Amino acid sequence: MLDRAPQDDSKAGLRPVAFRGAGFAPKAGRYSGWIALVLVIAVWQLAGSIGWINPLFLPSPAAIAVAIYKLAISGALWHHLSVSVMRIGTGWILGTVAGVLVGFAIGLSSLARGVGITFISALFPIPKIALLPLLILWLGIGEQPKIATIALGVFFSTAISVYSGVDNVPRNLIRMAQSFNVPFGSIVRRVIWPGALPSILAGFRITASVALLLVVSAEMIGAEYGIGAFVLQAGNLMQTDQLLAGVVILSLFGLAVGKAINLLETRLLHWR
Amino acid sequence: MDLIANHITHRFGALEVLDDVSFTVAAGEVVAIVGPSGCGKSTLLSILGGLLQPSSGAAELRGAPPPDSRNPLTFVFQDFALLPWCTVAENVEFPLLHSGLAIAERRAAVDDALRRTSLSDFRGAYPKQLSGGMRQRVGIARALAVRPAILLMDEPLSALDSQTRELLMEDFVRLLADGSMGAVYVTHNLEEAVRIADRIVVMSRRPGRIRETVSIPMTRSERGDIHAREKLLALQSELWSLIRQEAVEAEREVQHA
Description:
The structure holds 2 protein chains of 2 kinds.
Chain A: H1 32-49, H2 61-74, H3 76-108, H4 110-123, H5 132-139, H6 143-167, H7 171-179, H8 184-222, H9 227-236, H10 240-268
Chain B: E1 2-12, E2 15-25, E3 30-34, H1 41-48, E4 56-62, E5 73-76, H2 88-93, H3 103-116, H4 132-145, E6 150-154, H5 162-175, E7 182-186, H6 190-196, E8 199-203, E9 210-215, H7 226-256
Helix pairs in contact in B: 3-4, 6-7
């Protein structure tokens, strides 16, 4: 038989304990970002409309929108954009495939690690755009040097994120698989690949920005078409509305790529 | 099938962890290994399970495993080692994917293991959705699915709260009751050791040597009785007096390190 202790029900002299746990948990409001963006655009438009800002230096949002519309109607936008997308897509895929293969080799093989990390450490810090003149000498003045520049930039970041991801797969999971005599290939496919995927996808986010940066730089140095070349030409002709139209398109392109990676993460990393 | 530790010595660089450890786990027998922190219990278990090569000596098997055993030496890990991207059923099925079983046989083995561990209703859940005790149940189900001859359990309850420990200990006792499976049970917890083991190997502090091997003079089914509990408590107290001084010294050593 349990001997239950009596409860103290007396309310006299009670006071609440002061709450001290507020703050340090920032949360983004659902609409706050959009509201802030709309406000900034509205103030910018107002400043342009009442003449506070010289449109030659900073055209109003409406002027930029008109410029984008005209570019779209004339077909120039799609031409420049498609050339840039082709360069980014090809360079990113080549760099990513090579980076994933080399990253996995470094993550899984002592020989590849010894050799690979030395080369990556030595070559990663070089700004890849500095290699464009050399690549033009090697590959000619066509698309190849621009694509190769993007592929190189993507390759190093991908290889690093892949082997870091492989290194960070919990060792206990690999030991567990080994304890069940799971073959090497299956451990790579079923344990290491999904375990490294968060790091690999985080790497994709970085390499998408690297690819965008490099395509614009490469197109500014030596291209007739592409968003980078278009922005440079507009700047040279003082067509700031067109210049900013190009910048907005680059920004939208970056946002679209980020959104695609978000979707990929939601789909592939739902277990987190 | 017997599992034999044959003069096992192991060093990590200059650090000697195990020194000439020998004992045998007979078929269906449960042997607990206890000792102070850092005495090499987990290292010994890794060597016995073939996950670590000893500096000298060997882990050996005598006799054939049961014909239906798909992984005679099977670990149950302290940290569960579940694949977070797989559901409960997929985790249990994982070691069977390369066993050559047909899909229907694999499903049947998974269903059986989930039923034995009361996890049938959670087959579609992910590890992050489960409590610690449930996760360890998945680890046990995964081990049972391959029909082990000997379970190698590395402090399987130490990451769990006391109530969950009690419930899982009841499960272990039930699963080991028919003697079809043996086990090596590494633990810090002497109460667990006297509750589950047929024999207890007491190890010295580093480098770990066998100090004493103690037999429990009653079957596991007899241990629930009130008089048996008194005896087990006395035995637990004797074991503690055996390792207490060394545990204190090991603790001091860890602090100095």
